[in-house]
Amino acid sequence: MASLKRRAKRIALYGAVAAFCFFAASPFLFMLITMFRQDRDLYRVGKNSLFFKLPPTLDNLRLLFFDTNYTTYLQNSFFIGVLVVVITLIIAIPAAYSLARLTGRWGEQAGILVFLVYLVPPTLLFIPLFQVVVKLGLNNTLWSLVLVYPTITIPFCTWLLMGFFKSIPRDLEEQAMVDGYSRIMAFLRVVMPLSLSGVIAVVVFTFALTLHEFIYALTFVSASDQRTISVGVPTELIRGDVFFWQSLLAAAVIVAIPVAIVYSFFLDRLVAGFTGGAVKG
Amino acid sequence: MSVLGLRGGVRVQLRYLLDREGLLGPLMLLPAIIYILALVGFPLVLAIAYSLSDVTAGDTSLDNFVGLDNFRGIIKRPEFRRALQNTILFVVVSQVLIIVLATTLAQILSQDFRGKAVVRFLIILPWAAPIALGTIAWLWLLDSEFSPIDLILRELHLLGPAGLLGRDAILGTDTNLVWLGRERLTMASVIMVHVWRLLPLSTVILLAALTTIPRDVLDQAEVDGAGFWRTLFQIKIPLILPIMGIAILFGMILTAGDMAVVFNLTRGGPVYYTQVLPTWSFFIGIEGGSLAQGAAVALFLLPLLLVVTILVLRLARRSEVT
Q1: How far is CA B254 from CA A264, A265, B299, in A?
Q2: Which fold has domain B76-321?
């Protein structure tokens, strides 16, 4: 009896796991299948099917890569991502170290304030920021996004890095300073090498955040050749009522899956940041 | 000579300054503070100034103070009431669904079973993928004519002319549900995409919280004969409540402040059935060019935000104490 009950529990567990996986991942599965289907296969009114009835084709990918601005969006997003990562690291690393070590109680309060800035949604700021961008003459260029994205990434990354720096024993730096290093040298030579994994996590999140961002990219940039992947694909590849469904889905999934794979490796650190260190992942 | 001497002096002074930690600390923090003040603080003030003026995309001077006229005008419009209702409805319903599902899923994932790493990856996908691109998948899944969801429902005889056992199909005899064309279904679709997108985040946060519960507490509960539900509601949930609170508050901000889902899925339509404050603010302020009113609409999010922020701070403090 006991083993029967246990087996029933086991089956229920696997059933629930399968149901959740289907809910989360099936949209991507449909994208992966649909992107290789021919028009004649996909659009059969009243007789459409979930899977291939005709052989797969690469025509949709060809259309996407050669007849649309897709590769331009990819380049733009990459360019913006790299620059924002650099800016974020240059500003967030010293700030985080300062909050972790040099500013004492006062720094703790400031650290919480920095985190609160992360809670301000872009929806509240996009209209005035648009005017700032216009005044600076950056509207319709991807430089506007390079300028503005660090407002999202700096607070979050400062908060994350602060956690890493705090987890490194103070004694190590103090020993180095007794040995004649200045504070800055101790930081660069002792703390930074130990924080490398944290810095890599920050690089990943910063890059991912720039890829995810939608509202600023939609508002500041309307020139097609300056658009990012998140905005270019849904606004430019949908032309009026004509949907190039297979190419559209391909455009989305080609970016979504690699980003998701890299992102998932660093998820635990992200969670630690979100819960304000209340949970050490 | 004097120039060189001056330079040397500056260098010595600089070195002296950098060795004083009382100065070095603020100095290292300064760039971040300047960035945030210039591009978050200033725009926030500007948003409030805009909402009290009559600026448009054509005339951006702030010289015309109109008091609360924008807010008064907006409140009178039926679209506003709908957008406010929708925003609250979407936030509340999706958060309730997310927290129930995430607690369930976190419970499941805290057990041992084969293929857990793969399962974890699949579950995380919707959060890790850029949301504007994820929404495109749903646009296809909910297509008015070729929707794969409708197709599956037809195969199950829950929809379409071929019902079960001679009766009409439960979901209607039309071949398609037209998810994004009907008032309630469209709203349900928006909520579904929000749930889909945020479930991974809440789950992972709750999972991390569950793993902090000491093993002996759970063992003791088992010895005392507490069943599954009792353990869940009287031991696990009370222990992870502060972190659950943080997960809920983050979810609320991410849903209330999001416009990628609604913009890409429905553009606020049909009519304004799924319009929310962020999308309406965009349509009025950017597409319509009325910066003042657009800013005013977005500012209606501020009270919600303040309440959430205060709650986050309290919870964070409490979870530090325990």
Answers
A1: 19, 22, 16
A2: MetI-like fold (1.10.3720)
